[in-house]
Amino acid sequence: MISIEEFTKGLEVEFEDVEPGTLTPETNYKNIKGWSSMHALIIIAYVDSTCNIILSGADLKSAQTIRDLYNIVIEKIK
Amino acid sequence: MLILEQYGVRLIRIQELDIELVRSWRNQSNVSNFMEYKNQISTEEQKLWFKSINNKYNYYFIIEFENKKVGLINVKNYDPQLGFGEGGIFISDKDYINSFAAVFATLCLMNFMFTKLNICEISRIRILKNNERAIHYNKLLGYKLLPGQKEIENQLYELHINDFKTLGAKLNHAASVLNENNSELKYSGDVSDENIDAINKLLTP
């Protein structure tokens, strides 16, 4: 099972333009500079490839922080 | 008429009857503020513009999402010799700015140009250097700032087909899982002098 730290780090890599070390589990990911639907799609691709879980648009809407997202993933894995 | 469909978006090539709608969008401050030309566009100017783009080298589409016309996407100045076209997009409807409309429309058009037609190797876009949102959006798609553009106001970015194949595959996969029943790229329309031969060939029954 991926840890929250690995999950956060992985997202940071996927977002490319984000300065390394700036994302934490408590980051409101929708406040990332230049947030757009492209980021949302990248999150869905990342979670699918690393956790084999499909997030929906509604999941993304309901989550505020990276920890919220992680918790949704964990719930779906159970 | 040319219509592309994928991931729940419909891209409808603009016709003369659409140009007043497009003009009204283009004159909104949330759109014009991010364009190099910021002045209000008149009806006459719009007609002239349409005359200049209603040909086989320019493809402007209305983006329809959830049965609503929400924006515009284009490939312009297509050069068949160089396999090169210039992209652009805006979402005019504020309610849809953070929706999947833009990214699904982008993938749909790129899949058509890069993969289905296989006639484009390079896509370029110009982005005002203060438009951070568009810069991030396009970098995530694989566009790279061209050398010598850093100090320029309207900066030129380029995407090569190989980069799109890598990043696009990931994005297309995610778009497909979100749109299980409509992930196939569909196209329809009439054979026309305003299409390049490769498009007419696809549209020929």
Instruction: Outline the low-pLDDT stretches of chain B.
Output: none
The global form of chain A is globular
CATH superfamily of chain A: ACP-like
Range of helix content of chain A: 55-70%
* Shape by Cα distribution of chain B: globular
State the secondary-structure class of chain A: mainly alpha
SSE class of chain B = alpha+beta
CATH architecture of chain B: 3-Layer(aba) Sandwich
Rg of chain B over CA atoms, rounded to whole Å, is: 16 Å
Oligomer: heterodimer
Measured by DSSP, the beta-strand proportion of chain A falls in under 5%
Can you tell me the number of structural domains of chain B? Answer: 1
Mean pLDDT over the residues of chain A: 92
Description:
The complex is a heterodimer of chains A (78) and B (205). Chain A is mostly helical and 78 residues long. Chain A has a single domain (4-77), classed as Orthogonal Bundle (Non-ribosomal Peptide Synthetase Peptidyl Carrier Protein, Chain A), CATH 1.10.1200. Chain A contains four helices and no strands. Chain A has helices spanning 4-14, 37-51, 57-62, 66-77. The longest helix of chain A is centred in the middle third of the chain and has 15 residues, at 37-51. Chain A is globular, with a radius of gyration of 11 Å. The mean pLDDT of chain A is 92. Chain B is an alpha+beta fold and 205 residues long. Chain B has one domain (2-195): Aminopeptidase, CATH 3.40.630. Chain B is 36% helix and 28% strand. Chain B contains seven helices and nine strands; from the N terminus they run ββαααβββαβαββαβα. The radius of gyration of chain B is 16 Å and the shape is globular. The two termini of chain B are 15 Å apart. Chains A and B meet through α2 of A and α4, α5 and α6 of B.
